[in-house]
Design brief:
By secondary structure, the protein is an alpha+beta fold. The chain has a domain of 95 residues: Sandwich (Immunoglobulin-like). Helices cover 18% and strands 35% of the residues. A hairpin with a 3-residue loop joins strand 1 and strand 2. The longest helix has 27 residues. The protein starts with a helix and ends with a strand.
């Protein structure tokens, strides 16, 4: 190496020797702190008081709930144990043969937990729900909750 090239090389490595530790310290300081006592998962909400209809299956139970004045509807989903289908979607359909692309997406159920999904209050609609596995792209179950 020539003398100017050695000098330039030394200058570049000196800059790296200064900025790399500063960058590491800045990155460590900017790591967000976990808040103690705060749940990481999203709050699933509260159940409405009246149960209109419910179905109890082996792995889960489903209930159609409403407010006391029947102005709000809610779908309650309770997984009893760890689901065999970890990424499942719930669709509301008007009949059992309806395509899911035309259906209303209600929500996603995952692990063992309670889930509450708000529903549109449509008195003319049938309460037929399809549980769909998005990984295997197949219908798992059809749930009919008629009031």
């Amino acid at each position: 190496m020539m003398k100017p090239l050695r000098r330039r090389h030394l200058q570049i490595w000196t800059v790296w020797a200064i900025f790399i530790p500063i960058g590491m310290i800045a990155a460590y300081v900017n790591i967000p702190k976990k808040v103690a006592g705060e749940l990481i998962q999203i709050d699933s909400g509260k159940a409405l008081p009246l149960v209109i209809n419910s179905i109890d299956k082996t792995n889960y139970s489903v209930a159609l709930r409403s407010s006391e004045d029947k102005s709000q509807l809610q779908l309650e989903w309770i997984n009893k144990n760890a689901s065999a289908y970890p990424s499942s979607l719930i669709y509301k359909v008007s009949n059992e043969k309806q395509e899911l692309k035309d259906a209303e997406l209600i929500g996603r159920v995952e692990a063992k937990d309670h889930f509450y999904f708000p529903l549109k209050n449509d008195s003319t609609a049938k309460n037929i729900f399809v549980l769909y596995d998005i990984i295997h792209q197949q219908k798992i179950d059809i749930i009919k909750l008629t009031p």
